[in-house]
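Quick one, T. Sequence first:
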Amino acid sequence: MSGHRARHRVVVLALDGLLPFELGIPQRIFGRARTAEGRHLYEVVTCSIRPPGRVETDADFAVLVENGPEALATADTVVIPASYELGPVFEEGRLTDELAAALGRIRPGSRLVSICTGGYVLAAAGYLDGRPATTHWSHADHFQRLFPKIKVDADVLFVDDGDVLTSAGVASGIDLCIHLVRRDHGTAVANDVARRTVVPPFRDGGQAQYIQRPVPEPQVATTTAARAWALARLHEQIQLRDMAEQESMSVRTFTRRFREEAGISPGQWLTQQRVERARHLLESTDLSIDQVARDAGFGTAQSMRQHLQAALGVTPTAYRRTFRSWSGHGRTVGSGNDPVGSGS
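Structure tokens:
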């Protein structure tokens, strides 16, 4: 026996009318996550709500799925990609008997994840009642009307509510799956997966930046240079006016333009970047907590502790204790039904 815990099993539910791109995201992201020794951290299985066989897609081809709904009973994480043929789920907010029977096989405590309109399935099953959630921005209003108990946020790329996570449209499923790898196994492993997939390990802002405006303003200037300038100086005190000056804009114009491009305010963006810098330093260096706080731009350990607690639900010391040995020893953390960061 190797002594390793069993790999975390991700079961992807393939529904008729599925989008092939989204169906492939979990396999691509979770399937690339490995320890420093090259051991796979996840096992990804695809299943249907019917016995093994053909599942139709929204493309000019179908897929052959070799597992039936019984695979859901073996899942540590269930992923539901989008489908364009959800029928009463999308139209009335109710599950079909066949879909309800399949979801009934999911074990209590399994982590539930949706990509794009896959969130309608979680909502119709009652998993999102009273919770924050998101879906594709073009369906957000309909989603909220159909499921009034859900706190819909149409501006974000994904919502992590512990054991239930939802993502916005299409490619945001990549963001969410990389986030889960980061949550389970740390920044180093997530960054490696992102590099192999040739995508950013952390995408700025939310889906507000992708919504088509009725009368879009011509973009004669951007805030790209200001962001690059700030990233090189995260350890310093950065004022909003300093960032605006990099683009020769007034603070008011800069703030508006920044929100249009990034989907969040400059202050929120700076905090996100500093949290990511702190995570990297906690994982990959032996710097003291005070020094990490200074280098990440939080100033004091207390300030960093508050921001990490708000963003990650853990203290800097607990985060380092969980993930510090990844880069040197390839230690596996948080597999099975005990995902790191889930509040357990």
